[in-house]
Each structure stands twice: as structure tokens, then as C-alpha cells.
């Protein structure tokens, strides 16, 4: 489907509060598809042949891509890495001309949730590094793949959000997705 393709990675979606609320809100937006990757790959494995081929076609049809996930141990969940290893390897090393070169230019946005608050993600804070710095490997991946990097949508304090905070985070996500779509809208050929 053209439009915004959100790949939602979570190790245990049934227990998710924050990402589940964000995904639910995103599903209400026009031209937006949320793909529950854990439902597709429940054993955290994406095979390089069939699975990666299906995922590649989904990405090639999209106008923009969002990777949505909770931060686990200063990185994304294992399925995100499995997706990179299978899908990006297929597209950029095995079928570079027919897939990777065609995907290049598709804008990418990260939407990540973190249990710790913003003060933990500072020099001298509990985690010592900004969340933006922790996303550097993904930024480098986007650069390698030619996927223009859009400002991430980050939710802090995700372990202790009441209903009002959840609603605020979901509304913020909808706004960030709308802004992403507006900034990266395809201009009609004349
Ligand atoms: C195994 C594991 C590792 C985690 N590591 C971090 C971490 O490194 N930094 C952090 O801020 N939160 C960490 N968290 C908290 C999660 O980011 C938080 O629970 C999640 O964003 C909440 O979203 P959810 O309700 O969709 O699961 C971790 C949680 C788990 C289960």
C-alpha cells in the first residue's frame, strides 16, 4: 500500500501499553498501515527468502517508512535486528539493483518509547547518553540505505504513564505522523 508503512516491533505486543496505544492511534490515520511484525514473525526470525521477499515488496510500495518499537537494553527488540539482517541484506546486497536502489530515497522515521525519563538520557544522567545517540546505528543504517532520516518521535517515562499521559503520547504521535507525511508528500509529476 502506498502511504505511510509503520513496522511495529514488540517482543510481547499483548502486554504493551504505550506502543499499543500509539499503534491504535496510527491505525486511525488515512493512508497509514501498521504492520504487527511480531504477529508475522512470532519466533523473531525472518527468513532471507520468502519472508524478506514479502517485506521488500511492502517497503517498495510505501511512500515513507516508520520503525516503531520500545527501547530494550539501549537498542530495539531482537525482531528489529532480524528484520534488518534479512530484509535489508536481501534488498541492498542480493537484489541491490531491483530492490535496494529503488527503495533509496524513501524517507524513514523512528518512533521509540523508553522506560526512563528524559533526565536519565543526558550526559551525567542515569544512562549517560541521549536517546538520539542510542539511535545512531539505525541512523547509520538509514544513511547506508539512502533512506532520508526524519526527526524521531520519542516517548520517555513509558513505564509509568497514566491514561492521560498515554492519550497525550498518542495524540503527539498522530501529529508527528501527519507532519512526516506532509514533509515527505510526493509531488505530482507535471
Ligand atoms: C528487557 C527490557 C529492557 C529494557 N531496556 C530499557 C532501556 O535500555 N532503556 C529504557 O529507557 N527502558 C528500557 N526498558 C523499558 C521499556 O522501554 C518500556 O517498558 C517500553 O518502552 C514500554 O512500552 P510498551 O508499553 O509498549 O511495552 C526495557 C524493558 C524491557 C522489558
Overview of this protein structure:
- The chain has 190 residues and is α/β, with parallel strands linked by helices.
- The protein has a single domain, classed as 3-Layer(aba) Sandwich (Rossmann fold), CATH 3.40.50.
- Helix content is 45%, strand content 16%.
- The chain has eight helices and five strands.
- The protein has helices at residues 18-27, 37-40, 50-61, 78-94, 96-103, 131-134, 136-145, 163-183; strands at residues 4-8, 32-36, 64-70, 108-113, 149-155.
- A five-stranded parallel beta sheet has the order 2-1-3-4-5, sandwiched between helices.
- Helix 1 (18-27) packs across helix 8 and helix 3 (50-61) packs across helix 4.
- The chain is globular and about 45 Å long.
- Flavin mononucleotide binds next to helix 1.
Write the layout of secondary structure elements.
Layout lengths: L3 E5 L9 H10 L4 E5 H4 L9 H12 L2 E7 L7 H17 L1 H8 L4 E6 L17 H4 L1 H10 L3 E7 L7 H21 L7
Parallel strand pairs: 1-2, 1-3, 3-4, 4-5
Helix pairs in contact: 1-8, 3-4, 4-5
The protein binds flavin mononucleotide.
The CATH topology: Rossmann fold
**Helical segment count:** 8
Unreliable spans are none
The percent range for strand residues is: 15-25%
Compressed to H and E, one letter per element, the order equals EHEHHEHHEHHEH
Helix/strand class: alpha/beta
Kindly report the spatial arrangement of strands forming the biggest sheet.
2-1-3-4-5
Overall, the morphology is globular
What key attributes describe this structure?
190 residues; alpha/beta; Rossmann fold; 5 strands; binds flavin mononucleotide
